[in-house]
Amino acid sequence: MDLAIPGGRFTAIMGPSGSGKSTLMHLLAGLDTATSGRALLGDTDLTACSDTQLTNLRRDRIGFVFQAFNLLPQLTAEQNIELPARLAGRRVDPGWRAALIGMLGIGDRLHHRPTQLSGGQQQRVAVARALLGRPEVVFADEPTGNLDTASAHELLNLLRGSVRELGQTIVMVTHDPVAASFADDVVLLRDGRVAGSVPDPRPDTVLAALSAVSGARVGV
Amino acid sequence: MAGSVAAVLLAETRRKPGRVLLTGLAITVATVFAAGTLLLGETLRAYLADRAEQTPATAAAVVRPSDLPGEPDPVALLGEVAAVDGVADAAGVWSAFPTVGGAGAGALWALGSDPMAGPLSRLAAPMQGRLPSTPDEVAVGESTAARSGLAPGAAITLRGDEGVPLTVTVTGVVPVSDAAVNTLVAFPVTVAGLGGLLGQVDLAADPGVDAATLAGRVAAALGAPDAVRTGEQQRAAEIAEVSESVTGVLVAVGVFAGLAVVAAAVVVASTFRIVLTAVAVITGYGLLALLRGTGTADVPDLVLSVPGLAGVLAVAVLATVLAAIAPAMAASRIPPVAALGSAGAADSGAPRTGRRLVVAAVAAAIAGGLAWAALNGAESPELAMVIVAASGIVAFGALVVAGPVFVRGLVAIAGPVISAMGGGPGRLAAANAAQVPRRTAATISVLTLGVGMTSALLVGISSTRAGAERSISEQFPAKIVVGLPDPGSAAEFAAVLAADPRLTVHADGSAVFADPAQGVPDVVARTAVEESAAGWPGALLQYAGDARAQLETTLGTAQAIGFGLVGMTALVAVVGVGVTLMLSLTERTRETALMRAVGLSRTGVRAMVAWEAALSGTGAAAVGAVIDAVYGILGVRVLELVPGAPAIPFAALGALVAGVVVVAVLAAVLPALRAGRVSPTRALQEA
């Protein structure tokens, strides 16, 4: 497979189960190493990096949003947001932090623990965590998988907003055509290969393309 | 219902075998600890008792002629008790202080009697030569032989207060407690013939006659119940006579073994692996045998107390079930809705500070009250010690209850230090500890218990040692003490010795104390005193230096066994912390993976785990050392081991605190390595 993901855009990766979405994202995000082939982030060859280099790269250049939110239960929302910066020993830009918190609408939740937040709120805290370090790319793994429809839409709008207004690059893995329709481009995978793409996606066009790729009708 | 629950449990066990294995390991170690403590404790008891007891275990009853009315004829008395129904054998224990001449120096030596054969003989196998077989043969004590150069075959003369000298032949060297005074052993008839006194009659019972019955019959026959004791009573009295501290130590050891069982019950948290406990006892026994193999030359035989070990097993099983009740009840109280919530948060959240503090305060007050009662109200030292132990257990309970609150305070104090020293991982470790106080408190209570028992033991050991050394100094103020019949004779003898430049001498009452002068070897000084004492009427030489050395050896061995107990405690601490950390990290694999994903390096994860362990270790060490040093002192006080203030081994306690932190970090090595291997992709997987 040969795939280039453009910067400053919102790219969705889709495909049926077992198509290699997760593996692809693990490689792109430096979470796992490839047995063959290369993965580049900018000019950096991720496949040539040591574990320490990958760790530093994830810390400094990549942000993550997970399906299960993955906030640390023992830390407050604020501490969770600042965790990567603290691990890196970086200073947090207070203006940028305030802007993010305002944009995500979590200003009154900063001192709560994850268990005291709704799913949507938790995921917005996770997005703030991912964006605080101004990473080159944010990887989102099924970010709406554990959210109700309203919260999901709100979150996807926020992600799209950060691409449009802040120039953030976002790569989102999803199997939800509606979620994918918020992206600028949709890349379709099947059996570990790029099986197509949907520029300027809408739910129906994504669904149609997905059905064609899967060779079966996919319910929403 | 029960069946389906069991099925779920089994499925869970199959899915996460590691968790069950770890819990099993904790129980195993706890049981090994209890069993080992019991073994070492019994061994120490036997060792000390063996040093103090004179009367052989084969003596079912004894008669003490000094307690008989009037002055009975000893030979008639012996015949009378031997004729009592149920007495299989009667052996008189005679002693005399004849003047010994012909070899070595001519002075008063001690001469003891022994039947040389049969159940009532007190002699162990000779170290050299053979035991005497006729009345004109004697055996010589081990230290005596070393000092005087007497060997089998030598001829010496013994002269009592009156009568003609008796020439006897030395046939062997035997181990007797003769460090202080030169000692020979001969047949009773020999000793009696030299004007010896009958100090005691040992009686062996016919088969089927128990000790109490025998003692009763003999008392009735003699018409003097005060003069007859059972063998057991006599041995206990001998231990008490030798030293009060030995009795104290024996009580303390018993209580410590009891505490060990309680400690094991605490460590045993929540599982049902009964089979493992059996394995544990076997392992423990093997381990101790190993320990003994590598120990000092003088380590006594291990004493295996079967009822004790069975007790440990029973308590371990019972404690396991009881300990499982609390988690089970807690689990049943979780509302189904909460179970669907975010995983991993069960241990987090604010502890119910108020309620915990109230319960802890009540427990602490009870502990204080018990301690006060032990110091002021208890009738016997034994009872007081048991009360002190109970107070300690309640105090530990208070600590466990207050644990989560205490952890907050600990992190508030130690957190900034660790953050400054450990950077990011240090800060995370402090946050982990503070935000999940119950998890941290669990680790700390396991360690505190270990540290506490160790520090109580250290205080006990050092106080006993200090007390024993003080009493040795009082008993033996000089290397050589010469006893003389009267103060005038002592003053004369002191004048003679003082003329010798090799000695420093002073007389006090009817005793003369001699030490080697500066730069003079002990042997030279000893020979000088022996030469002067030869022929001096009624001079009895006491080799105080040798006696002191021997006492110190005994003390050292007892201390080594004590340190064996300390070692067991350290083992429990290592495994306890290791297992708790390992379980805790298994629970939060996803958290670890997340930290890896957002940029914590492998080294960082490991450092975080190590810092968490160090934090727990510091807390446990500080609290355990302080609280239980207090209990150590209390124990020493109530047992009246030491006359003055108890000795607090500050250096040893300091080393203990530092050692525990090191041990905690060492225990974190395996969990840390494991945590470092967690792949960041685990954060993306569903729980």
TrEMBL record, chain B:
Question: What's the protein name?
Answer: FtsX-like permease family protein
Superkingdom per UniProt: Bacteria
Family, according to the entry, reads as follows: Belongs to the ABC-4 integral membrane protein family. LolC/E subfamily.
Membrane-crossing segments per the record: 20-41, 245-268, 274-291, 303-326, 357-376, 383-403, 409-429, 441-461, 560-586, 607-627, 647-673
Pfam families cross-referenced by the UniProt entry: FtsX (PF02687)
Q: Where in the cell is it found?
A: Cell membrane
Q: Keyword annotations for this protein?
A: Cell membrane, Membrane, Transmembrane, Transmembrane helix
Q: How does it sit in the membrane?
A: Multi-pass membrane protein
Write down the species.
Answer: Pseudonocardia aurantiaca
Signal sequence extent: none
- Ranges where the ABC3 transporter permease C-terminal domain occurs: 565-680
